[in-house]
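Collaborator request, handled under Task 6.
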Amino acid sequence: MVDDTELLRGAGLRVTAPRLAALRAIETRPHTTADDLVTALAAELPTTSHQAVYGVLGALTGAGLVRRIEPAGSPARYERRTGDNHHHIVCTMCGAIGDVDCAVGHAPCLTPSETHGFAVTTAEVTYWGICEQCAAAEQSGIDTDAVAANRPEPS
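Structure tokens returned to the collaborator:
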């Protein structure tokens, strides 16, 4: 397994403390937002600005080391799982996001009925539903906002 330092160098990026910290934080908490990443990095690198975090995310995304996903109604999210054309499932109540593997095991996973002359290389699907915790909370009459605030995100 390649460590993050070698990963950055292999992608042609300079190895910096903010980039290393961002990779660790995104690995620990997949589907993180830029704001959550700012908070995570502040604990380790208190002088890192919001702008620096956005610059780091741009560099990591541009190099293909991090994937940016944009579920409707949610800020952009970042994950380290790249290159496998997996999809996502989003809870409509709390916004939790989970990974869904491609059913056929290779890109593009789906075959469109019409390609309009395109050579399809990937498909990005977002499934929407209610997670187990929110469904249970709703059935029990518990405030789902409280459940969302206290639950770890699925991976």
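The cover message to the collaborator said: "The chain has a mean pLDDT of 88. The chain has six helices and six strands. Please let us know whether this matches your experimental observations."
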